[in-house]
Amino acid sequence: MKKTLLILFTMLLSLSASAQALERKDITVKDNSFSYVYQTDIPLTQLFGKVNQWVAKSFNDYKSVIQYEDKENHRLIMKGILLLSGSWVDNLSLSLTFDCKEGKYRILADGMIIKVGAKEFTYERYIAASVEEIFGVAPIDAKIIEELQAQRQVAFEKFEKAKKKWHPNQFHYQKPKAELDELDARINFVLEYNAKAELFLATRKSDIDDKIADLYNDISSFIATNDDF
Asked: How far apart are alpha carbons 54 and 217 in whole angstroms?
């Protein structure tokens, strides 16, 4: 079976406030899936048509993303990719199942695969994985940082002595300066990486949950829009 994955958005749309708008706190993923039921007063046939319109307007090739469509029972299954600009990850691929009934509809997202570089994770695996598993480098141990800072202090003292004794264009001045600059660069890199790792651990779940909520809000906002002319 030919696998077709098209880009859902180059960026998620700005969303207007809605009484049913989801927030990250509403997102609970279990077994790599999340579903939410919306109440609506839109007639069933019109409701299912709005779902089809959203898919058609969101994709370049409507037919290529549809995995299954049951017009009689008002069910549609599609597959796509979210490009997560400004996120820790590159993209999130998933299947969306729409089930429409009189007075309500459900959106089910499952089969979620989060891609970071060449690596792929399910939602739960991504949330639980270590920084090293995801980015390939573990945060640097505090003892190593202390050692680098001690080396930096020695290099700084050598450089201060060289400044008093040698002219800037002389080797005995330039060598300790280069050693100090190299240690400064290493320490800055380590501290920046550790800060990034700490921020990643604190925000990776909310980052993905925000994107899922944005997707659901975009769909529900489109369905709720009165497009009478």
From this structure: 12
What pTM value is reported for the model?
0.81
156 contact partners, CB below 8 Å, separation of at least 6: 180
pLDDT one-digit tens code per residue, 111-149 = 999 999 999 999 999 999 999 999 999 999 999 999 999
Give one DSSP letter per residue of 81-103, joined into a string: EEE-TTSSSSEEEEEEEEEEETT
Note the pLDDT tens digit of each residue in 193-225: 999 999 999 999 999 999 999 999 999 999 998
Q: Alpha helices, DSSP H only, in the chain?
A: 44-58, 62-65, 123-128, 131-135, 142-165, 171-224
CA distance to 43, 156, 180, 181, 182, per residue, from 170 (Å)? 84, 17, 16, 16, 18
Q: Are 46 and 223 in contact (CB under 8 A)?
A: no
